[in-house]
Amino acid sequence: GEDVEQSLFLSVREGDSSVINCTYTDSSSTYLYWYKQEPGAGLQLLTYIFSNMDMKQDQRLTVLLNKKDKHLSLRIADTQTGDSAIYFCAERGILSGGYNKLIFGAGTRLAVHP
Amino acid sequence: GAVVSQHPSWVICKSGTSVKIECRSLDFQATTMFWYRQFPKQSLMLMATSNEGSKATYEQGVEKDKFLINHASLTLSTLTVTSAHPEDSSFYICSARDRRRQNNQPQHFGDGTRLSIL
Fold first, then answer.
1. How many whole angstroms separate alpha carbon B72 and alpha carbon B70?
2. Distance CA A111, CA A33 (A)
3. DSSP state at residue B56
4. Facing B43 at nearest CB: one of A30, A92, A106
5. Quick one: pLDDT at residue A79?
6. What are the pLDDT digits (tens) for A48-96?
7. What count of Cα atoms within 13 Å lies in the side-chain half-sphere of residue B49?
8. What are phi and psi of B88, to 5 degrees?
9. Is the Cβ pair B103, A31 closer than 8 Å?
10. What is the side-by-side order of every strand in the sheet holding A4-6?
11. Hey, are the CB atoms on A43 and B103 less than 8 Å from each other?
12. Is the distance from CB of B102 to CB of B114 less than 8 angstroms?
């Protein structure tokens, strides 16, 4: 079945890089996503990567995809206190009705300290 | 960018009350909307998929008579928690799929509704 796993907690010092890891099981996933959730709020799409790409960079964010190992990572350069949040990895799966759905990992809580 | 408005953001009510949550796509049309439930410090659990003009598709284990979903227009879906009890207390989040089916961003999320049943 479809499953997405992530480490639950990451603590980094302000200014350092953060790397959040994720593994998924569905090799047919075409898109993989990273979402950010701040306390009491909904999800904000940070970035995504298409399955035929190995890397995508968007300002401070770098996504690496190892399709062979089904491993996805999100690197945040120069991490700031405003980056403290929960980060969800998600893959795009297929509903039985043919509609796309997102399968989320449990979320990684990133804490940035001075 | 695409905006999804969810209302109310927080509701507290007595056990036995029915509560309606609205999800609106403000600047795009959404043929498909999704309803999620999130427990504290946990991931999002898909409850149901709501399609405009047709019945919602519920995930396994979700009671359709308990969680009534209506998707009456291309910009509005509602979730009604009927006869709510304390175990229904949770954070409910909706998302909407742009009718133009932009594959790189399949769902736009609302800010969620925190439901507390006393």
1. 6
2. 21
3. P
4. A106
5. 98
6. 998 889 999 999 999 999 999 999 999 999 999 999 999 999 988 766 5
7. 17
8. -85, -10
9. yes
10. A4-6, A18-24, A71-76, A61-66, A55-58
11. no
12. no
User: For tokens 């007595």, what's the residue?
Assistant: B14
Three-state SS letters, chain A: CCCEEECCEEEEECCCCEEEEEEECCCCCCEEEEEEECCCCCEEEEEEEECCCCEEEECCEEEEEECCCCEEEEEECCCCHHHCEEEEEEEEEECCCCCEEEEECCCEEEEEEC
Residue B50 three-state SS: strand
Is B114 in CB contact (< 8 Å) with chain A?
yes
Q: Which residues contact residue B63 at a Cβ distance below 8 angstroms, ignoring those fewer than 6 apart? A: none
Interatomic CA distance for residues B37 and B88, integer angstroms: 10
